[in-house]
Amino acid sequence: MNLYYLGPEGTHSHDAAVQLRDGMLRDAELIPCTTIPMVIERTCSVQAEKALCCVPIENSIQGSVAQTWDTLMKSACGTGDASQGGSISILAAFTVPIHHYAIHRQGISYEDVRRVYSHPQALAQCQEHIASLFPEAVPVALTSTAEAVRQIAEGDGAGSQADAAVAIAGRNAAARYGLECSSSPIEDQAGNETRFALVGTRASQVERVGTPLGWRLDERMVSLCLHGVAHSPGGLVGALLPFAQAGLNLGRVESRPVGDRLGNYVFYLDVSFAASAAGAELNARLAPVTHQLAASGIEVVELGNYPVYQVEL
C-alpha cells in the first residue's frame, strides 16, 4: 500500500503521514510528492486498492486548505487531472498540534535576515512573529516547509551579514538537515492545529481498526459540495435551511469560485455528528435533505463520510 504525502521528508505532512501509518496503516510505504494536487492525482492514478494519501484540509488559524478541497471536488465531480483514476473520498481525519520554528544556519543574526522561506500556510500562520523578528525580511513562498529548510541547508541564506535567510518549519526538519532553530515556536496563536485527511478511492480497502493508541474519536463528519445554489436573494439561505429543519449541525460553510466566471460559486459544508453515530445513521438523516436540494436544482456531491480523531500524543 502506497501512502502519498506533501514532501519532502520533514514537512508537517510527513510527520502526519508517519502518525497515520503507525496508527492505522502499518504496512504502508510513504511516498513524497511536490504539491498537494500531485499527492491526490498520484493516489487516483494507481490501482484503487493500493494507494491512499494524507493531505491537510484545515488549520485553526488560516482555515481551510483550499487547494486540497478544490482538488477533491474536481475528482469527485469527474473533472481535472485528479479524476482520471476514479473518484476519491475522505476516509478518516485526524487533528494534530502544529508548531513552527525559525530554522537557520549557525551564526545567523535575526537582524540580518532578508528572506523568510516557507509554505504559504506556514508563512500566514506566523506572519505577526515574522514581522516582529525579521522586520527587514521578505516572505518567500515555496512548495513545502521542508523544501524551505532544504534550501537553507544547501547554502541559501548562509550569508553575508545583511543578506541572511531563515526557513519556517517544524523542529524535526531542523534536526533532519542539521540546522539550528528558535528556542520556542513562532506561530501567532497558541493551540495551532491542523486537520489532516486520509483520502483514497471509494474502492480502497482500509483495514478497520480500533481507535489508535493516543488518539481520541471526537466526532463523525460528512463533507459535501453544493453546486447550483441560486445567485439571487435568499439562494444560500434556501440551500442551508433544509439542514436546520432536519436538526443537522453545520460545522463549516465556505464558498469557493468555480473558476469559469465571477459570481459562480460552489459551497463546501461539513455536517457534524456525534462520535457514536453509525455511517448508516448519517446517510439516513442526510438523505431527505439531499433529495430536497436535488428537487430544487442543487447538486450535492459527497466528499467523505468519516470519523474525526484528535491526536493526543
UniProtKB/TrEMBL annotation:
The chain positions of domain ACT read: 224-303
Q: Which UniProt keywords apply?
A: Amino-acid biosynthesis, Aromatic amino acid biosynthesis, Lyase, Phenylalanine biosynthesis
Q: Which reaction does it catalyse?
A: prephenate + H(+) = 3-phenylpyruvate + CO2 + H2O
Q: Which CDD domains match?
A: ACT_CM-PDT, PBP2_PDT_like
Instruction: Name the Enzyme Commission number(s) assigned to this protein.
Output: 4.2.1.51
SUPFAM superfamilies, alphabetically? ACT-like, Periplasmic binding protein-like II
Q: What is this protein called?
A: Prephenate dehydratase
Pathway field: Amino-acid biosynthesis; L-phenylalanine biosynthesis; phenylpyruvate from prephenate: step 1/1
User: What range(s) does the Prephenate dehydratase domain occupy?
Assistant: 2-201
Q: Which InterPro entries match?
A: ACT-like_dom_sf, ACT_dom, Chor_mutase/pphenate_deHydtase, Preph_deHydtase
**Taxonomic placement:** Bacteria, Bacillati, Bacillota, Bacilli, Bacillales
